[in-house]
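Example complex used in Figure S2.
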Amino acid sequence: GENVGLHLPTLSVQEGDNSIINCAYSNSASDYFIWYKQESGKGPQFIIDIRSNMDKRQGQRVTVLLNKTVKHLSLQIAATQPGDSAVYFCAEKIITGANSKLTFGKGITLSVRP
Amino acid sequence: EPEVTQTPSHQVTQMGQEVILRCVPISNHLYFYWYRQILGQKVEFLVSFYNNEISEKSEIFDDQFSVERPDGSNFTLKIRSTKLEDSAMYFCASKIRGGTDTQYFGPGTRLTVL
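Predicted assembly (228 residues):
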């Protein structure tokens, strides 16, 4: 399958440990943020999202933190599993207006050591 | 679970040839998108489509590109005269409504231009 991680930074974690993946976004007007996971040979898969009026949102084993002051987004994965190995992208958009596109970050490869 | 499908999974073409990439969005979705991802790089927005017309396009989406929803189920991306630099993964995405609704991505078509 397609290996989209060739030129991306890699985070290597031990199975069972917590993972923190960071993202710096570019547009201070963005008010909606999403984390996607992309496994080899597949399209991006939605993980969790957050609106700019929040600074934290939790899902199943995942937490997204938003710091608008420094335009920083992070994804925390609890008890990382081998199936979490993938490339992770943050994406941003502006909710209102005609602009409906997602703008993606570069991506980080998460590698889980058994 | 409904999913976005794309065909073919891999398309090889000669430079200057026309290609049509096909997508079947999730059936009750109203917003459609094409993105591309050059190997090792981030996912880039190409075009969004709603109510049978383009709602937004990026600078990548020049006159060589066109999109069409020829019937109630298919959403196509045509590249009239392919260039070497068009080689990439092309992802189709769809969502039900505007705003913060999740975009669901297809598995992608890998386009190789020789």
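The longest strand of chain B covers residues 88-95. Chain B touches chain A through 31 residues (CB under 8 Å).
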